[in-house]
Amino acid sequence: MDASATFSRSDEVLTAAAPRSPQSNRSAEPREAPSAKPKSTAASPRVVRSLFVSDIHLGCRHSQAEPFRELLQRYEPRYLYVVGDFIDGWKLKRRWRWLPVYDRILQRLMTLKRSGTELLYTPGNHDAFLRNFLANFGVVEVRDRFVHVTADGRRFLVTHGDQFDKVEQGMPWLSLVASYAYDVLLSTNWLVNKLRGKKDDPYAFCGMIKRRVKYLVSHVSEFEEKVIESALASRCSGIICGHVHAPRIVEVGGLAYCNTGDWVENCSALVEYHDGSMDLVRRNGEVIAHLPVPAAPDFPNIDSPIESQERLEGAEVEGVLVA
């Protein structure tokens, strides 16, 4: 493995494949119009060091799958992290829904893989079942958590974040009820805005409500503080997570908290450039927040395989070997 990025190890290496529905169910599901084709991308993809995405929720009818596909066309990362909830197993279990655009997303991921992109995946609470499903293939590396080393040498814990949610861990039934209630809220708000002729941001009002609710839940459960504590215990400079659908970069206790957001409302992702700096961007490339390179990085010239190997080999993160 290239020593410019290192990752923490857990028990098993897993891989990816697209789920397929029974033929009898596919005919009953809504299909895209025959004229709906992927938009051509005239510009060449921008080469970046890393791309972090989470909470795409494929299978949920509110998933912004086409904008997500366009994002994958816009960038060509060396490392692509899917930080949980790529597929919404909760929704698919209730009602199967697999659209053609989902296959195009997987095709793009395979194209990136063939071109040299490393695919890394940490499951979330909505797609935890994929830990076993992905075990039969060698396309993507799956861990509960990674330690990503940036180009300037900073270490970031990468994990979905549901394990730090008190509601998710202590009252999973309440989390499930809240998920379905949120889905109803999205549907109602989308319909209201459509009737009012608002096409620019169909989830604007719902987003405002959810941001307030998520802020309250995050505050009550001390979500940000807990994930930062985990990063600190792992001897990391910060954490990259998802789960709460709230894109954000903020410094907490001297460590960087980076939340990639989601692809239901915010359509956001975290991009690392070749100098180690990061941007939180929206679907159109708009920069939401910026994380600069510190004045004195821990490991300058981290892209040197010899130096990074000498500095990092044998380090442990909570008992997990960093290779």
TrEMBL record:
GO biological process, one term: lipid A biosynthetic process
Coiled-coil intervals, chain numbering: none
The UniProt record lists the keyword tRNA processing: no
Positions of the UniProt region annotated as Disordered: 1-43
Keywords associated with the record: Cell inner membrane, Cell membrane, Hydrolase, Manganese, Membrane, Metal-binding
GO cellular component, one term: membrane
Record-given protein name: UDP-2,3-diacylglucosamine hydrolase
Gene Ontology MF term list: metal ion binding; UDP-2,3-diacylglucosamine hydrolase activity
